[in-house]
Amino acid sequence: MVHVEVSKEKEFSRGKVVVSYPKWPYRQKNIFSIQEVAYAMLETDGSISVLKKYRYSKLTNRDFNQLIIIDGTLDKANLKRAGLSEEWLRCELRKRHIPKIKNVFFCEWNKNEGLFIEKM
Hints:
Residues 27-110 form the YetF C-terminal domain. The chain is an alpha+beta fold and 120 residues long.
């Protein structure tokens, strides 16, 4: 379970993490997918401390993840890089009872893990 509190910019004043591109704080710690995170904490100085899941604690040759949807907007170039179609993605969203792409806050694809989706 990921223990990161994610919110919109209006929540910033309450000390929550602002996400306009959710991967940037993790990439600084050699984490390229939210799925690698076991626990994350917003520190009092504004930095983020992250504990990786055990299976990701060592560097591997796994494929990089493709960010497909952010804040309800589809990245068609990344979808194509992942070798996926928009029709396939919409079908996967329907399977998860998500009627429209605009209802997805964050979606990424990993060849080994599949889709990771966070609803709005």
